[in-house]
Amino acid sequence: MKKIISRRYFIIAFLLVIADQKFSVLVLRSDLVTGLSDFGYYLSDMMLNFLVVLFTLIAMIWSGKWQKINSRKFKGSYLFYSFLALLAFVAWNFVTFFLFPPTRNEISYQHAAPTFTGATAFLMYFFYPVIAGPIFEDMIYRGLVMTALEKGKKWGLDVLGSAILFGILHISSHGWVLTDFFVYMGGGLIFAVLFRVTKSIYWPIGLHIVYNGIGQILMLLH
């Protein structure tokens, strides 16, 4: 029975990752969104992603995986690991800044940002990139993917698979640029390792929120 659930869970996880990568893109490029305001467009994108995350949570609860990664227990060592992960991000950003050109994802956001006003500004400067986005991404690419690949844990397949899919997520809508992929895959590795050592979804989510929050503040101050 456990093998059947595990096999089905892997298939469901595979389908949910595809849905996360493609569902909102296909809908938002269709005639269904014709006439939407900027706020309506970005809110629709967020809600479509939320649906995928909702099904992700249901799948993890059904399989028993959620109960294993839902620990809210605080440990000083986990806080220390999170601080080390943040330092790793600083180092990785320093390296990629000098080695690689700006990512197309980053350039696209910077071009769109000056057009954000009113409720759209709140949604796209703060709520989506700093709060909702990190929660959505970690639920899928750490929680779902890494538990689906846990049988390959001793070979690091859970960490590697999570990082690769996280990298693909951030380049698939803006062109398959290899340097962009390495930038985001590196970040995905850091989040995945933190999830592995803490065994709790909340630590990578917390780090992701802090990291993106710092990035948004620096962009606004620039």
Automatic annotation (TrEMBL):
InterPro entries: CAAX_protease, Rce1/LyrA-like_dom
CAAX prenyl protease 2/Lysostaphin resistance protein A-like domain ranges (all copies): 122-213
Protein keywords: Hydrolase, Membrane, Metalloprotease, Protease, Transmembrane, Transmembrane helix
GO molecular function, one term: endopeptidase activity
Signal peptide coordinates: none
Spans through the membrane: 39-62, 78-100, 112-135, 155-171, 177-195, 202-221
Family of this protein: Belongs to the UPF0177 family.
Name the record gives this protein: CPBP family intramembrane metalloprotease
Annotated source species: Streptococcus pseudopneumoniae
Lineage, opening ranks: Bacteria, Bacillati, Bacillota, Bacilli, Lactobacillales
